[in-house]
């Protein structure tokens, strides 16, 4: 079992596995970010940190090169590139 902890994790409430890249993605509504790490809890990456784009994310999935998530405040599905966090769309 791998446990991820630290100052950047306060209220994780979205979790997704990227089987092809062997990464775990999570959204945290408290600190307004989406991060990822490999299956062993190493190589942590900040994908998105934004108080505008991540008001209250609560569900997350990965498909091909994109992340998709829902947000209680945005009332819709949002998406961005899973590697860079760029190319944001609603």
Task: Itemize the secondary structure elements and their pairings.
Layout: E1 12-18, E2 23-28, E3 33-38, E4 45-49, E5 57-63, E6 66-71, E7 76-81
Antiparallel strand pairs: 1-2, 2-3, 3-4, 5-6, 6-7
Structure characteristics:
three-stranded antiparallel beta sheet; LDLR_classB_rpt; 6-blade_b-propeller_TolB-like; mainly beta; Cueball_EGF_LRP_Nidogen; four-stranded antiparallel beta sheet; 90 residues; Thrombin, subunit H; single chain; Wnt-protein binding
Structure report:
LDL-receptor class B repeats lie at residues 22-66. One of its GO terms (biological process) is canonical Wnt signaling pathway. By secondary structure, this protein is mainly β. It has a single domain (12-81), classed as Beta Barrel (Thrombin, subunit H). It is built from no helices and seven strands. A four-stranded antiparallel beta sheet has the order 1-2-3-4, with no helix packed on it. A three-stranded antiparallel beta sheet has the order 5-6-7, with no helix packed on it. The radius of gyration is 12 Å and the shape is globular. The N and C termini lie far apart (35 Å).
Radius of gyration (CA) equals 12 Å
Category by helix and strand content = mainly beta
The tally of domains stands at: 1
Widest β-sheet, arrangement of strands: 1-2-3-4
Shape: globular
Main beta-sheet strand count, sense and barrel state: 4 strands, antiparallel
β-sheet strand percentage: over 45%
- Helical proportion? under 10%
Mean of all residue-level pLDDT scores: 88
> How far apart are the first and last residues' alpha carbons, in Å?
35 Å
Strand runs, count: 7
Model regions low in confidence, pLDDT < 50 over at least 5 residues: none
- What is the CATH architecture term? Beta Barrel
User: How do the SSEs run, as a string of H and E?
Assistant: EEEEEEE
- Total helical segments: 0
Task: Using the coordinates shown, work out and report the CATH topology.
Answer: Thrombin, subunit H
Using the coordinates above, name the CATH class: Mainly Beta
């Amino acid at each position: 079992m791998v446990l991820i902890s630290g100052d950047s994790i306060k209220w994780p409430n979205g979790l997704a596995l990227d089987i092809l890249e062997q990464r775990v993605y999570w959204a945290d509504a408290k600190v307004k970010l989406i991060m990822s790490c490999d299956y062993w809890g190493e190589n942590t990456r900040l994908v998105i940190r934004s108080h505008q784009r991540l008001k209250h994310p609560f569900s997350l999935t990965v498909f091909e090169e994109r992340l998709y998530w829902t947000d209680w405040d945005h009332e819709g599905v949002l998406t961005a590139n899973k590697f860079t966090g760029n190319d944001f769309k609603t």
